[in-house]
Amino acid sequence: MTTNKNSFAYKVWDFFCSLKLSIFLLIGLALTSIIGTVVMQGPSREYLATLSETKIRIYSALGFFDMYHSWWFILLLYLLTLNLICCSIKRLPRVWKTVFEPVLVLDERFEKSLSTVKELKISGSKAQLKDKMAEFLKSEFANPVITEKDGEYHLFAEKARLSRLGVYVVHFSIIIVFIGALVGSFFGYKGYVNIPEGGSIGEVQTRSGKIVNLGYSVRCEKFSVSFYDTGAPKEFKSILTVLENGKPVPGYVNVPTIVNEPLTYKGITFYQSSYGQSDEGVVYHISVRDRKGGAPLKLTARQGERLTLPGGAFLSIMEATADVRPFMKDFDGPGAQVEFTPAGGKPQPFVILSEKYEAFNAQHGGDLIITMDGLDQKFYTGLQVAKDPGVWVVWFGCFLMVVGIIMAFFMSHKRIWARVSDGAVTLAGSASKNPTGFELAFDELVQKLK
Amino acid sequence: MSSSMLFNITMVTYMVSTCIFFAFLASKAKAVGLAGTYAALFGFVAQTAAIALRWKESYDQGHGHAPLSNLYESVVFFSWTIILIFLIIDFRYKYRAVGAFVVPFALFGMAWAQLSLDNNIEPLVPALQSNWLMYHVITCFLGYAAFAVACGISIMYLIRDKMEGGNSAPAGGLLSMFPAIKVLDDLNYKAIMIGFPLLTLGIVTGAAWANYAWGTYWSWDPKETWSLIVWFVYAAFLHARITRGWVGRRAAILSVIGFAATIFCYLGVNLFLSGLHSYGK
Questions:
Q1: Domains of chain A by residue range
Q2: Which of A87, A293, A385, A438 has the most C-beta neighbours closer than 10 Å?
Q3: CB atoms within 10 A of CB A131
Q4: What confidence tens digit (pLDDT) does each residue in A212-234 have?
Q5: Which structural domain, as residue segments, surrounds residue B231?
Q6: Residue B196: which H helix or E strand, with range?
Q7: Which of A70, A432, A436 to mutate to test the interface with B (most CBs of B within 10 A)?
Q8: Min CA distance, A371 vs chain B (Å)?
């Protein structure tokens, strides 16, 4: 890098080291990120139908439908990473030297490189002034190092030198976060699974469509949902049991899993995510009784199942609900839409309700009165399944980032030099951060000295 | 006394404070500036009491959660954090004129909340039933508030910069109460130095919560993306500070853009885009 400043390699290197590139990339990332918040990511069919064909073609060519994974967005992220690595490599050695091998002598050449300089005429010999300045810096700033050179005294004092490394801690932390994200994407997966109540699963389909074998199985014992009086949901809860070789694992039996309280077993975590009514699981309960009297006969049926009734008639339950209120005004309780076929007759569709509505139920059914007693509704629970071995790397990166930002922001490496000769003091200073703020503090210091 | 009454008192006090700060710019009397700060402080105390009372009221109603759960509560909290950051900067640096450009943000928030938002205390939906809610909301809003203060200061910078038209002679009139242009630039930077770490913490706590609740610390949800956009803008600002030619006017403009992005992240995403942060809609 040192030989030829005009060589191509040097120019490339210089380009990747430049702060202008950082600003350009940060603003570029900010601007391009907007696209993915406006264009639907992983678009639904309904959404695509609202776009013209040309738009769809342009958007997919530019990767707008999966923008944050498009080649050019990833490229911007890689460029940013490369930029901050280059910047760090270029600047770190110099900063290291500044931190651990400070310039102790304020000679004329060095003075010219500093923007905050003040010459003061103060009466007194240089030895007196040296002691006075040392005392002054110690009480107002920091304990100085005194060097004598060419008949003049040089004082150097500094504060919070390590804060200069804060920036590099932040840059390093960003790389750590990216590494964590890569580890997660290579060695982890995200999936989704529905488990009906009473059912269990041993594999999960990931978002990329792969089937992953968990190595154990998870059974949903029960799912329940509760509501506030306002009708807003209060709690979604799955009771889960982990099974190894079909046997429940101690400590993982009947674990309540709710939103914000996931279940983790062997590095795989299950998150309560959604639920629904499981169709196959529903069992209907009805009773059938002779009009002339006698004990009712209790029957159970599944959806669409054809039951044979006493006297040779058939009955199928087409659909049913636990509460008919939304469908039938002035009625409540369970109800079912059934198809009744008398012996040798044609199918008759009608509705049956609970035994509270005997007169209603008596309108149909020939010699029989059929009553809807209720149904066992079964839910399925929808669980997000995630395995991410990189997540701790990401948290470590985040922790470093916060520490680095605090070092870099709330601590400024402030340095003050004083060159003392007979009757004159030249004061110079510099700060790693916020030169404007430092200048104000420096002016105050000079005022106090006057 | 109910929290709602106290919030009304808060709103009126912020209005009074704003008026006093404008009177300060016109009158140039130091005592008036101090009165503006005290009015803001009084409003802040009333608002703190109101938030505490609302918290207690939620327990009385059997819901029992911190008042940080819907749009009304977040707007109120936002205005509280703006005044908090303003008071910190005011007590530390004592540039009273800044109040005229910052307190109005808090006033606007309170007025909007009190006059047109639904202030019912609602129970928490399952997704919000977590301690992460507090960590996440508090850090984010303190960050947003610091950016609001920085934006107010940057507007002062741009006004002063324009009026003085490049010559360094200090301007008279209303501007004479403005801090010097160098000071405004510095204050802008200081406010962002408060805001950036808090925003970073807000994003990190949000990611931690998302990972805990859904198993994904980052899913490019519009809210997440916009918070990152805000982060990028202020990161650019911070790098611009150490690049020649980017201090001063350009820094002030970046700060205003950053706050516009912040507001879009906070409100625009909910109003115009869909996603996970629906404020219990």
A1: 8-96, 102-160+412-449, 185-279+380-400, 281-376
A2: A385
A3: 14
A4: 999 999 999 999 888 887 777 88
A5: 140-281
A6: helix B181-214
A7: A436
A8: 38
